[in-house]
Amino acid sequence: MTDTKRMLFAFLAIMVILFIWQVLTPKRSAPQTTAPPSQTAQTTTPAPAEPPRLAQTQPTEQQLQEPETEIFMENDLMKVTFSSYGGTVKSVYLKKYRAQLIPASSTILQTSLVADTLTRLNWQVAYQDDSTLVFANNLRKTYRLNSDYTLSMRVESDQPLIAHLQVDYQAGLALTEENVKEELKHQAVFYRNYIKTDKKTAAKVKPTTLDTVKWVGLKSKYFTSILAINQTHGTVHLSPTDDARIGYRLIMPFETSADFTVYFGPLHYDILRSYKMDWEAVVDLGWTRIFSVAILKFLMFLYAIFKNYGIAIIIFSIIMKAIFFPLSRLSTRQMQQMQMLQPKIAELKKKYKNDPQALNQETMQLYRLYKINPLSGCLPLIFQLPIFWALYAVLQKTIELRQANFGLWINDLSLKDPYYILPILMGVSFLVQNFLTSADKRNLALLIFMPIFLTVIFLNFPSGLQLYWLFFNLLSIGESIISRGGLKWKTQKTLMTTDKK
User: Fold this and answer.
1) Is residue 39 part of a domain?
2) Measured distance CA(270)–CA(267) in Å, rounded
């Protein structure tokens, strides 16, 4: 097998793995709508026909009949709707991203003492201003809307208790993207205990108990909701929802008060890192995290200059080509040397046709004589793979590239090309590059098949990744055309000098 074949098949194997991972995800239900909450200051709905019975205190007739009250608070970043039923959060709408994070007809952050069902009743609004809301029932719950993406929540009792407090977040995160299949693939839960931060994907979540948890966060493709216990720790009971998402219940010791910080916002690495609680781990960039973070920051730097992520990606591809140029030049020269040695290798094959071991030894001796590394043709690909994977993670998982418009027909670089123009052009560039760099035209079928196969693989990849690879290939084609003659002459000169020795 020639080095060209080895390089192509190495790349093929990697792409097949990525393709299988991308495709084999079951289809799920449609996403929730992302319309903002109503602008009405207060609305009422009928109370439940059969409210839960109390474990310790019998509800009054007035509590059973009072309608629900909705209270709204907002800052520059989000609008939050609270419900008097359970003193819960009913809606979180992110203004910049036009995204609703709580599923329709659901509420979260329902708090109660274990075995006490008073929280399902109507809580009274004890105090309210622009940023603070106090609910009162058998407990007192204070919400404070901060100037960022967080809520502060404090639960208090008038008398010291020896009890356990439970906080319910059973609804999971709402689906915000058009591609439901892709959205559900990113559903996961992250949690931090005293030792490490860990995660479970929605596909692997079964009813599970997690101990000594400091914070727990649910994530979708671009957004997250994190509940952090400020003083102590708790036990989290995970459970899958009916539509393949994740819900949980937090249980913790309670005496007189408990304080929480709740984050509702984008999976933005710098924002999450600013809280210094390891929340940035929820931005799941995989094994290429160090490269992905560097690429993301560099793309953001270029975007600040050019105001277009598509142009930023093109410039990034030019810079990457410049960085890899010495390696690709060395690889091309080594491959040309191997091609020019083919007559000598053919003689060795004829001479040692009945002795494979001797043939291998003599072939390697020939390579050493002419200072050729048979694996050098694969080096550019091997060194580019971390960049490829890192850029793929950036385009797939970072909020900065969500709905990033390039222009023309590409209005979201994180999604596939709707007309498949970029992957087809990329496939053509692969084909041209193969014919320019391969001297062995006997493998014509392989030279044609591989670009077609890679085009099919890339069809559903983010258009930003297709754009990067297209321009990288175009630069490689230009390099091959410009330097092919000069490199070939230098290669021949090197071989002639070695032969004289």
Assistant:
1) no
2) 9
